From TrEMBL:
It comes from Tribonema minus. This is Dioxygenase. One of its GO terms (molecular function) is metal ion binding. Belongs to the iron/ascorbate-dependent oxidoreductase family. It comes from the Eukaryota. Transmembrane segments: none annotated. Residues 193-296 form the Fe2OG dioxygenase domain.
Amino acid sequence: AASTCDSSASNQTCSADAEAEVLKGVPVIDLTPLSGPVTTTEFQQLVEQVGSACQQWGFFQVVNHGVPPDLIEEFQAQVKAFFELPADQKSAIKRTSSNARGYYDDEFTKNTPDWKQGFDFGHIPDETKPPDDPANVVMDGHNQWPTAAQLPHFQRVMLRYYHALAQLAARIMAAIALSLNLPRDHFALDFTPHTSFLRLNHYPQCPRPREHFAVNRHTDAGALTVLLQQYGITSLQVNHGGSGRWVGIEPVEGAFTINVGDMLQVWSNDLYKAPEHRVLANSQRDRMSAPFFYNPSYAATVKPLGLCLGPQACQVDPHYRPINWGEYRRRRFEGDYANVGEEVQIAHFRVSGDTSTADVTAAEL
Ligand SMILES: O=C(O)CCC(=O)C(=O)O
Ligand SMILES: [Fe+2]
């Protein structure tokens, strides 16, 4: 089947192993053992599955993840209702250059406009206070919601779902820590408090899908993404192993799709790479999705951990300079928001290598 390895954008050596892996697709992992004791064989196997999925794909799907199906259904109904609101009601809560949260229909990825509409909201320190109370204005800005008259249950359902996903993400990070030979709670402090945000995506039908991407190729900036895809539509693709071979991620019913982000790539010193992915535009159907970006605290300094993965296999050469998550997040948002300049990428923090991207130093950020 060597001919199926041909890809004009690729200079990979097409090994039979890589081919077999691509044909099987992104792994599906059953999280049931995560709720049991660490000592079981099933738990160990789960940790190994997570580790090899992170190494081979940077993507996997999870089932039996513990998020109640009725909460997911309620959430999806609210997402649909939100995007069906009249344009002027969505525009009234548009995000701005100084507030990363709210509605938008003008996002840029890689300096090209995405064929989509979105809505972002995130972590707030005090849910008993209004969203724009000074106590709730954080580095990313503040949450903006449709009015209670427009969508009476929206905010409540969004926040319930958000907290459920934060819990799931923390459980998956614990499995990832174990897969890196670290204590289960190794990352807990880095995420106290976490600065995650949830993004609602609506991709309208696109009359000329060859001329646009719903979302152009990118990596996710944070640590881990927990994505809810719409069942029955395969539009999300991953650049397998950076080979230039784009492989569709077919949603499994009831599953979440997980992917590694830039910060985990740095912590693991490139053992787990943040995979490039993109979303194709579709002329036949519209589509919804909702990525939950699990992010460290703004103050967290992220740097290679010096992992020891076997008796004689400790990492000694850090590939990255230390990165302050808050600054990195700010720079990435500036790139998303405006069609100007070069977006900051993780490659800018590489210690050595591609000098063409080494002009932005940690000191400048
Ligand atoms: O819609 C999707 O499946 C993925 C969206 C995505 O990659 C993103 O919003 O970062
Ligand atoms: Fe993404």
